[in-house]
Amino acid sequence: MKGCVYLVGAGCGGPELLTRRGAELLGGCDAVVYDDLIGEGLLALAPPEARRLYMGKRAGRHSAAQEDICAALIALAGEGKRVVRLKGGDPFVFGRGGEELLALKAAGVPCEEVPGISSAIAIPALAGIPVTHRNYSSSLHIVTGRAKAGEPLSIDFDALVRTRGTLVFLMGVAALPEITAGLLEA
Predict the structure, then answer these.
(1) Can you give the pLDDT of all 186 residues of the chain as single tens digits?
(2) Radius of gyration over every alpha carbon of the chain, rounded to an integer in angstroms
(3) Which entry of 30, 55, 57, 87 is annotated as an active-site residue?
(4) Which of 22, 151, 166, 154 is closest to 90 using CA atoms?
(5) Residue 90 catalytic?
(6) Quick check: is 156 catalytic?
């Protein structure tokens, strides 16, 4: 019997910010493969007997290569397990969910993406900051502050500044001097 994998966005906080669909899937899973940003409160929603497999990534601290994560998801599904791949934020917003989805589909593993609330909008909202406002900003642009290993940032700062919209940079702490300089120059 072939299992399935659900790429579930956990949002950016505790269980109260997880979608209802995500909570239902987590509550009925056989295994949960989770990232670095997943707290104990979210993991507690999985059945006690569910296998928990930590495969987190943080800048400079990777517990597993992306290929290994994809292989683990495929193997667990091959064992007939209902697997929740629990990812911080939304799986498709700089979360490598697209890579995982392609690997699962190539392996013939049934899979589904369950959106989560991205930190790009949730964190400002929780702080009382609207990312758009009809009097100030009519567009929102979410930009990664990280490049692929060994490559420079590839950001068209001039184009971003011309949009006159709200700019949200994710994962940009290490590149903050370069991002700041690029924006000021543009």
Answers:
(1) 689 999 999 988 789 889 999 999 999 999 999 988 888 999 999 999 999 999 976 655 667 888 999 999 999 999 999 999 999 999 999 888 999 999 999 999 999 999 999 999 999 998 999 999 999 999 999 999 988 777 888 999 999 999 989 999 998 998 999 999 999 999
(2) 18
(3) 57
(4) 22
(5) no
(6) no
Question: DSSP letter at 34?
Answer: E
pTM score, whole prediction:
0.87
Q: Are strands 57-58 and 61-62 parallel, antiparallel or unpaired?
A: antiparallel
Active-site choice (30, 35, 55, 90): 35
Does residue 105 carry a catalytic annotation? no
Which of 87, 90, 158, 171 is labelled catalytic? 171
Asked if 76 contacts 33 with a C-beta cutoff of 8 angstroms, the reply is: yes
